[in-house]
From TrEMBL:
InterPro entries: Thioredoxin-like_sf. The chain crosses the membrane at residues 154-170, 182-202, 214-241, 253-283, 289-306, 346-373, 393-415, 427-445. It comes from the Bacteria. Keywords: Membrane, Signal, Transmembrane, Transmembrane helix. This is Uncharacterized protein. Residues 1-22 form the signal peptide. It comes from Desulfofustis glycolicus DSM 9705.
Amino acid sequence: MVKSVIHFFLVFALIVVGTTAAEDRQDLDVYFFYSANCPHCHHQMGLMQAITANNPEVTVHFHEISKSSSLWRRFLEDHSIGYGGVPRTFVGETTFIGYAESGVALTFSSELQGYLGNRVQIVKAVEKALGHPVSLGSYGETAETDGQRGGDQFWPLLLPLLFALSYLPLRRRLASAERKRLWLGGLIGAAILAIFLLLAVLPETVVQSGAQRLPYPLFVFTIALADGFNPCAFTVLVILLSLLSYTKNRRDMLLLGTTFIATSAVMYFLFIMALVLLGGFFLERFGRVIMLLLGALVTGAGLLNIKDFFFLKKGFSLGLSEEQQLRFSKKASRIVKGLGRPGARLGLAVGGTIMLGIFVNLVELGCTAILPAVYLTTLVSRYDGLSAYSGWTAFYCLVYILPLLAILLNFVYVFKSVRLTENQGRLLKLTAGAFMLFFGLLMIFKPELLAFG
């Protein structure tokens, strides 16, 4: 009898405790919006799966935005969010945008309308909503181990160093210009190979966090400046200024040279904006496919430019042909004809220069459209809206014309005709080709690294 009573009270106590615990437990719904073509979404997916698998009181709702478009739009409207980038995570009323394995500080971005997402802060937000710590299972141990590795894996950087040292024993055999070009091309190839080997052996979290620490303005400046060292634009500007040098008038050189450069900047701005708006539309819908196509295009253009370093004027090229250069030379000659004589019409020369700038930029689009393709993939993944697009593109175009302005000021200062030599043209081709090849391969194999912090 006594045992039965004790057993009854034990069962009753367990029921009461269990009911109280169930009542005290606070269930949490977390909404994770992602895109199948988004590399950062793929990285965050593991964290969200670990949270929902190891914590019964947390339910993570996974929604692919193309398949749950109405729900996605409703969430954005309910939280007054105009930026539609992913991954977007809703933990209660707290919203995170983007994702990085590293990073601790809780940082709010007014432009992106949310806190910058990282593993630590997303977990903390879930724990705050629950009122107790959460478990990540084996995922937390793996992420922590990956973050601690990578210090002894920089051996690929020895490849270009060893290749550079080979110049000492080979310098006698590299006396000819052709052999020097082959050696320099090999050095560029060794450097690109070393970078990709480094990206392959380093833990992904280390590589990604390093890329996200690179300031975006620095990236845009670098891409635009590399784009500005463009043999096509250089050639036409040099032709125009060479003809102007015979007028013996610095004012005319400065005015018409500035007019040509300003026209090039405006035309390039309009072209890149059209490319960004059109590319952004397709990237949003067919992100990974478009990224692969653009990556293949940029890589192919890079290989063509590198080919021109070794075999200039042989086979297909992105540069201006001799026929096109002759055509531009004749147009520039008509512009400057008679400027040095009394009664010359400077206004007509300015108008002719503007028309020349428009014509040149339309012809050379195949020469200049490559690096802007890299720029647009980073821009549309980071920003949303016409004001952001136009602001960054204006900055891009200002940097783009810096080399042209340097050429103009040099002409005005030295006041003599100078031509772009073949060797200078080859080096410009090699530099541009190396940039294109590197970023083209990134777009194909490591698109997640094109997200700068």
